Amino acid sequence: MFALLLINAGSVVPVHRIVNSIWGSSPPNSVMATLHSYVSRLRKSIGDTTAGRRENLLTVRSVTPGYVLDIAPHQTDVDAFETAVENGRLRLAEGDLAVARDTARAAMDLWTGTPYGELASYEFAAQESERLEQLRLQGVRIWADACLGLGQYDEVIRELDKEVRRNPMLEQLGIRLMLAQYHTGQPAQALLTYERIRSHLATELGADASKELRILHQAVMRQDLTPPHTAPDPMDGPRGRPQPLGSPRPAEQDRGPGPGRAEPPPWATQLVGRESEMAQLGSFVGEGDRMRTLLMIGEQGVGKTRLLKEFEKELTSAGTAVVWAHCTEAPGAPDYQVWHRIVSKLLRTRGRQLDSLSSEVRVNLSVPNQERPMVDSGERTLVEHLGFQDAVCQLLLAAAEEPLALFIEDLHYADIHTLELLHLLAKEVYTAQLVVIGTVREHCVRSRPQLKHAVAALLCADAVESMHLTALSPADTRTLVQWRDEAPVSGDLVLRLHRATGGNPYLLTGLLRSRDVADDQEDLLDSLPFDMQVVLECRLAEPPAEVITILEICAVIGPVIDRRLLASVLVLRGTTGSVNDALQTGLLVSNPADPNDLRFSHGLVRDLLLARVDTRLRAQLRHSVAQALANETAGAPYS
What we know:
By secondary structure, the protein is an alpha/beta fold. It has helices spanning about 1-5, 15-25, 30-50, 75-95, 95-110, 125-150, 155-165, 170-185, 185-205, 210-220, 275-285, 305-315, 335-350, 360-365, 380-400, 415-430, 440-445, 450-460, 475-485, 490-500, 505-510, 525, 530-540, 545-555, 565-575, 580-585, 605-610, 615-635; strands at about 15, 60-65, 65-70, 290-300, 320-325, 405-410, 435-440, 465-470, 560, 590, 595-600. The chain is globular and about 85 Å long.
């Protein structure tokens, strides 16, 4: 009973669930008296253990309709273990490999044996033990990825060789072991590891190795692998962020434009399906000589920047100067970072117009002069914050005596003071010939309460509008494909590409750069350029582990997911998190016509999730789905 309450610490466990978990369908005749006796003895045991301590770390309370175990925060090994794994995942996603390695190692060191091993005959304990084992394996993968990124191959071999020999079905760990063996000059050992896994899967499950493992095997055979710890190309995203493991060396022409590389083909620069948005932007700017603010909201890769670049051409041809600034995701970055960039650019480009700024305004802007050096905005007092905000308003009033447009990208990375200042501008600088357009990712607005509140407050202000940029329609997808091929294309190819990308222009143009995209037998995930695979990997690194688990279950269910079936599987597996948590990521979307009809925003996301799921876990998830369907057939509703 203590194990059941501990697994659900802080939550009320109903009496009927306690009885069913301990005795199943055959409880004793005096089950309530027995249960009360268990509770009494448990309370006495806890009291004897904690006697003499100042604070009571454990208490068992009776709360309708059952019992709850109250435990002080951060007092259990499981809590410390889960926290360490999650912190390691976050540090790995940020590219902080050394910290990710050490944090994941600390989690692994907490593991001393099979949790609840003595209670393996009880289903609730077995389920929790399996959950923790999957979390342990995630911690091992995080540790291995960080070590591979740091070039510490020998450590990976020592740790993972034991894991894979113990359970050859762990394909994801096998992939990392093969990489370490290959990069220590042992390609033959890497091939033996592959054969051990492949033969075990064939013998035990009658299944073939996963596509990811087979691709790595072929790359080892060709000796065509790039060391994971090599310095990433600037086009591949933030410095130090880990690249997908097991990826063959990418061809230069598939890496996108950059120094020394070919420019994108003409069709890839065409603006497709944005006629109404361009018209909206034109009318937005033409509404008179007063300040206007627009928030452009859309998912990553939907084309916000591309649309702004096209609109910039119209503004500059009409005599409006455009200043770009980007918010960046940098832990510990000072407040107003993006505004400092805007101030610096305006002082360089419109210096004469700003000569009239008073010394006080320049001081509040933290512009270096004889009276005051540059001040880190993160060290400002409240008075200095207000002074800086007012000074920016004064500067923009002076700078916008002639038409001016500010394009502020990635506001979802902005600090709260930056958003407050944007709100203030909409109220205080309304007489200026100024247009401010900010871009923000839709899923970030949904999942971050502080950002959602700031955006809502901004949209309530006068002269502030929003534009929701959605994916391309199938018809627009067809147009883009036809531009590439300069000929009519089949409806099947258009539908296949649209399902894979969800009409996301960034992913669509990436697939169209592949020569094999028209091949019906070609896996579209394999056709995606390497830099775009990195983007998808990093996108999947954003949600917490429990949400990734839900998305993996969705991937196994299929391209179309019944919400009730998903909820039933989550209950059967005792999964934390909810369907709404998965929807907030933007990776899973619901059909507006039927809220119970869920699907992935991009089919490529599902393909990538399936490629990352071990064969053993995939079989377990399929079993849970089959069990949920069987329950429904037997008359038990999904829930």
